[in-house]
């Protein structure tokens, strides 16, 4: 049986250094949230820290929009697609 992580490893991701396509607007808003992004993001881009904050690492983001939908009621994300040529390149098969 093939694991999801093994399939994700086959994809390529070109990081746009210094220009993340997703950012958290206010880290304090995340402290008062249940932080579903930390367990719903299929790429594991969000991590809960010991101090209650959330860390976002966009490297490997699948650009699925899950975090965008989850955080919609709080509106605490800036979310755009990466610039042309950057981001995820899916390998099918």
Tally of helical runs: 4
Q: Which structural class should the secondary elements be placed in? A: alpha+beta
**Nearest-integer average pLDDT:** 88
Largest sheet: 2 strands, antiparallel
Percent in strands: 15-25%
How does the overall form come out from the CA principal axes? globular
From N to C, what is the helix and strand string?
HEEHHEEHEE
Unreliable residue runs? none
**Cα Rg:** 14 Å
Instruction: Please report the total strand number as a whole number.
Output: 6
Roughly how many Å apart are the termini?
A: 15 Å
How are strands sequenced across the largest beta sheet? 1-6
| Share of helix, binned | 10-25%
Summarize the helices and strands and which ones pair or pack.
Elements: H1 4-9, E1 12-14, E2 22-24, H2 27-31, H3 37-40, E3 46-48, E4 54-56, H4 66-70, E5 77-79, E6 87-89
Antiparallel strand pairs: 1-6, 2-5, 3-4
Give the tags.
6 strands, 4 helices, two-stranded antiparallel sheet, alpha+beta, globular, 93 residues
Describe the protein's architecture and organization.
By secondary structure, the chain is α+β, with helices and mostly antiparallel strands. Helices cover 22% and strands 19% of the residues. The chain has 4 helices and 6 strands, in the order H-E-E-H-H-E-E-H-E-E. A two-stranded antiparallel ribbon has the order 1-6. A two-stranded antiparallel ribbon has the order 2-5. A two-stranded antiparallel sheet has the order 3-4.
Could you give a quick summary of the protein structure above?
It contains four helices and six strands; from the N terminus they run αββααββαββ.
